Every structure is written in C-alpha cells, then in structure tokens.
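Example with several molecule types.
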Amino acid sequence: MIYMCAATMKGFKITTSLRNALTKFLEKVEVKIDYEDIPIESALHRVLAEDVIAKYDLPPFNRAAMDGYAIKSEDSRGASIETPIRLKIVGRLEAGFFKNINIGSFEAVEIMTGSKVPDQADCVIMAEYTRRVSEDIVEIYQQLPPWTNIDQAGSDIHKGDLVLTKGTILEPPDIGVLKALRIEKVKVFKKPKVGLISTGDELIDSFEIVEGGCKIIENNQIMLSNYIIEDGGEPLKYGIISDEFEAIRKIIIKAASECDIILLTGGSSVGRKDLVPKVINEIGVILAHGISIKPGKPTGLALVEGKPLIIMPGYSVACIISYLVFCQPLIQKFLNINPKLIKLTVNAYLTRRLPSTAGRTDFVRVSVFRKNGEFYASPIRSTGSGILSSLVKANGLLEIPDEIEGYEEGAKVPIILLRRQIPENGVNE
Amino acid sequence: MIYMCAATMKGFKITTSLRNALTKFLEKVEVKIDYEDIPIESALHRVLAEDVIAKYDLPPFNRAAMDGYAIKSEDSRGASIETPIRLKIVGRLEAGFFKNINIGSFEAVEIMTGSKVPDQADCVIMAEYTRRVSEDIVEIYQQLPPWTNIDQAGSDIHKGDLVLTKGTILEPPDIGVLKALRIEKVKVFKKPKVGLISTGDELIDSFEIVEGGCKIIENNQIMLSNYIIEDGGEPLKYGIISDEFEAIRKIIIKAASECDIILLTGGSSVGRKDLVPKVINEIGVILAHGISIKPGKPTGLALVEGKPLIIMPGYSVACIISYLVFCQPLIQKFLNINPKLIKLTVNAYLTRRLPSTAGRTDFVRVSVFRKNGEFYASPIRSTGSGILSSLVKANGLLEIPDEIEGYEEGAKVPIILLRRQIPENGVNE
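Resulting structure tokens for the full complex:
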C-alpha cells in the first residue's frame, strides 16, 4: 500500500497557526527605523516621527471675536439700557491693519472681528449693545467682565504645548494646525520599500498576449502595489523572474539589499519545482511554510539578510489574503503606527449557514448589502483561490477564527469591508 | 427700547435646516459629467464612467490545477489501487511552454500546475494517485470524471461578461482584474475641480509672519485641499483675496469659469463688511445663508454662473464641518458615486451627558477610545469654532439631529471616525 502513503506525502505536512506564524514573524523582523523631513504640503497620511511642540501662541495675539468696540471692562460697570455709559471713540481697527491706539479711561476703539485688540483694552462690547451717538461718541448698554469677546493669545494653543505626538497619521486638520503654527517641514517615518517579485515561466507582463498561447498576464504586482500605496508603503516592482534557481537567487539578493520587505508571488507550492524554498534555504531562513489559513495556505514566511520575505501564493485571492494577513501588519510595524488602525467593519447578518473547519482560520468573501438599516452578508459561492471574479463581487471579508466551526444562517458577524460602497436593498451579485 | 430691537437685528434672522438646505442645494446644482481615459496604473480610487465587459476568457485556456498527468477521463474508468491502469507517457508540459501534443487512447502527458492542457485531454490526475513505472509508463489509481483538476477556459470570467459597473470606485482587486483582462486604459469620471478662495485682510499665507503683528496664517486652504484629495476631487488654490468688492468679484468669476465647485472661506459673517454676499447677489444667487448647524451656522450656499459656491466660515472647525456637510456630497455627485459611501462609524458610549438645542443639528467633537472591547466617546470641552487644538484632540464626530435635545451619559451613539487610529484604554486628551 505504498501508493496511499505516497499520497499523504504531498503538500504541507505541518502547517502553522495564523496567530503563531504572525507573532513569530513580527518578533523576528528587525525594523530599521528611518526618517525624512518633508514639507507639510505633501504630508497627508504620513506618520509623524517626532512630537510636535508649538513654538508660537495660537491665536498669536488677543483677537476680537466680535464686531464692536474694544474698551476697558471697568468702564462698563453699571452700564444697562436704562443707564447707558458714553465712551469717546479714539480710533478704528480693521482686521489685518493695526496700530496700537492708546485707550484711556472711558475711551473706546471701534474694532472688527479678527482684529488685534489694543493693549489697554480687556474686552470687546458687541455692536448690538451699543449706539453710535455721534462721530466720536458711543453709548454702551452692557456691563462686561474682563476678556469678554476676546480670543486671548495662546488660549487655543500655548507656546510650548505638545500639539501632535510621534506615531500620529497626519489627517487634514493636523496639517492645518501645523500650518497655523508656522511649521514648514515635519519629520516622518520613511515609507517602507516593498519589493515585488513574481516567478513563473507562464507569466507575462505584456498585454500583447498571443491568442491561443499558454501564457497568462501577471496581475498580482499591480494589485499588491496599490494595497502597499494605500497602506503607506512604497512598492518597487522587480518584474517576472523565470523558474531558474540562479535567477531567483540573484533577484532576491538584489531586492533584500534595496527593500525593507520582499513579497514573492507564485512558486509557493510545495509541488512543482520547489525552487523558491530551495533558494531561500541557501541564502536565508524559512520561519514557516504552510499556514493554517484558507485561502492562503501555501504562504511562507522567511528572512533573507535580515529582511522579511513573504512567499505568497500565485492565485490572486490567496495572494491578497496573504498580503492582508502578513504584509499589512509588517508595514505598520515599519511605520511605527500605534495604536492599531481601525478597519472599516460592520456587523452583518449571514444570509446562509457557513461551515468552517476548526483548526484553520477561514477568510470568506462576502457580498454585503443594506436593507431596512441593517447589514446582511451573503457568502460568495465561487470560492476558488484563483477566482478573480469573486474579488470583484466581494465587498467584505469574514474571518472565521480557527476555534470556530462556522456560523448558522442569521448569525451576526463582523465583516471587514473591502470597499466603501455598499449597495442598498439587494444582493451585490 | 429700540436698542433691544437693534440687538436682535444682528446675525442670521432666518436659518435654514440642514436637511432642507442640502436637498435644495444638491437639486439646484447642474452637474456637467466629464470623462477621461487613464492607464490602469493610475486608476486607484478613481470612479468608473463605463461598464467593463470582458473581451477575453479567464483563464484564457484550460489550465492544469495540479501537478500530474493530462489524460482522457474515459481511460481512467475502473482505475483503483487494486486495479491500476497503465498509460503511455507521450510528452511533458511545463507551465509557460506549450506544444499541442497529440494524446491517443491510454496515453498521458506529464503536466505541471498552470500549464495549458492539450486539446484531447479532459482531466488531470494528481501525481499522488500515480506511480511512474518507467521512463514512458505511468500507473494510475483513480477514476476521474471529466474536467477534474482543470480550470476550464472562461470558468472564472467569460468573454462578454459584465465585470465592473459604471460608478465603481476602483479598489486594488478591480485593477488586478482589469490587468488580467488585458485592459490598458479605463474611462473614469474627471475629478471635479474645487476652487479655494480665502478672503480677509488679516490673513497671510507666508510663514514669515511679523512677531507682534496683527496677521494670522491662512490655514483653511491646506486643510480643505487635503480633504478634497481624499474625497476624489482636485483642489485649485486661488490664495488670499483682500476685503475689496472688485477683487472678490473678479476672483469668483475666474474660479467659476475654471472650476466645478467654489469654496470661499472667511468673510461669511453677516457683520463685518458683508462684502461676499453683496458680490454674490450681483453675479449669482444665494440659495441659503445661515444654516441651523453648530458649528458652521454662517455657511452660505450659492450659485454663480451655474456653479455651486459655498460660503464657508473662516474659523477652522466650522469650516471643516461646513465642508463635510455640503462639499463632500457635492463632490460625490460630480463623481457619480452611487450607492452612498459608508463612513467609518462606531457605536460608542457617551462618557457624559450632552445637551443640545432642538431645531439645530449639532456636530460635537469627541475623543473616542476603546476599553474592554467597547468604544467610549468623550465630548471635547473646548468647543469654540476657532479652537484648532480641538481638531487635533478629536478623532470622532457626533451628529445630533435637530429633533433630538441631547443625550444622557452612557447613551450608545454613532460616532463618525475622523481618524483611523483609536487609542486603547484611556481618554485621548
């Protein structure tokens, strides 16, 4: 019965659990932290590599918050509609034009919102609570405490305040604050360079495929590139390498010297030529090969010259899962992103029962839709790891952890959204 | 008592409800749909302006899904470990190298995963269920139905299939599918051009502010630019315009001729110089000025030469709310994005009571954090519409609709996340 025995010798005899593999991998990877100074104009979504301390007050001066008259608050004591107080107008200030007008007792300066308030004034009375008696006399009808209607210098941000902390992903308001604080450049973490190598003699990059030929278009690199850009990395494409030991060895060594992370797609099956594992065993170390996830089982995790290398399945769906599970957290590690990012997730009702094998983490492509304000997730039936059309139909992903044997119809489950567009009232199939 | 009366004459006498204002605005805006053809390499997050129909089958040919032997399924009838069937090996096919080997009865071709399967074969028997007896003889131990272990041409995507629909925001997998289908360029909606004009003599763009001066840095344009980029528009900066009727009139007319949407910040208060409303009343029409939202009340909605123009408050926080509420949906209208986008939202427990005024939509900046797997939202206390520091502290926004008078402490409320980073176990203040 040696033949049955032969059958079990195929494939990955021992697979590593997702949790173990990921933890071990992230531990072993040494992250070389690298910075660069960039102008704030190009800082959107970059990650701060320094704390930002305010060098100036905001507002930079006492600013009138209303149109009216800058006065000494003590002069308003007792003012009311019945007992108005008359003040002498000694000047007028428009926003953006300033001269420090001397304000004496019972004197006022007409002032517009946004103007700098003269030093001797400590409040602004709104125009509505005044009446202009003549060219240079105003009556006021309100008693004001000091600092009424004045945005005091530094009341928003004080010189010396910690404004933004290291590790912040810069969003539009942050960049607005940097600009207001007269900061022209910020120190950010360099984007990790992610090298993309595809192996396989059947692959071509060109659109000029020969009709009736035996080549297929390599499409994982363009997909992965776009994910890498979204996640804050910089993709470097190394193209398609033929299935030859020396060619694969050379390109991996080149990529390891130029990149922070290497993604190698195709050639990850234990069958076929076993070339990639052979090469890596010579120039690096394989930490795990064969992970208990579906799809994505043929994924391998390795280190070459200290650089993390992920051997990814060539089939696109498995390739993407492998990327999301292993490469995304790695990029975040290089970017020092902490705390963890929130993934766009909704709780949805399953439209049908979904069995799963315990001891394996399943990633199920689902089609999410909205109906009467609730989300529903319909598992996509064509689940082959090479089925590209399923990637277009899927707008969500359900992770079934290895200890769970599936879900019943109607179960409420968390769905990671792969798209921000969710159709209303219908199945997206 | 004319003075009390005078007091009420200030400000926006009649404000429009958010719902009414937005509906009316979106209805009145005529959208000129504009397309462009772009290479798929730069198509990430662009919006498809055409349906994409597959011109080729995927896979493009019958593809071996396993390493093994391509055979005629009828030749495997009755094969088992006890009753092996011997086949003559007439060739070998590696992935990417093909010649159409003629397979006769009881003949087999050794084949690798990914290879094109010869025409006469209709299944691939896995190597595990075979034994190589000699150089040109293989024994098989399994009976196979037709098409076993073959990914048939077109089984993923058929020539003629509708693959992606108009209005789809292109995500990485879509671009992978386009590449696989040998599509080099796609028709997408042109990014709407959003013109940014700031008014105010107190504003400067330069970092070389004079210490002790009365100018402040204009920082709304850089903030709005980044939001516009995130939302799929193209920002055009027109800089800072001084508070002069003719200067404002000229720049608005210029922007209206060059842009699809115009955002005018600063100068939106009814007080001060009233210049902007005056200008717009001459060259266009104001649909609403003064909206029942907080912050953002001074927002105005107008049309100039058929182009939508939003008069936005100069204070940054109000400016951002005004953008999110009125400009974002407008950009989506120009991009034909349908269905509506999902905003990254979490349900969180309020850490304190939050009063709100009925008849007004309040947008409350909150600090969201996670504790024991639940989300909590802590309203930020410094709520002035000019307080930049609150924008840095806030990672979420709570919309309190106009019919609701606030929430109690502990209420579970939906929070729109302004950042994808959420701290664990603590208040982000």
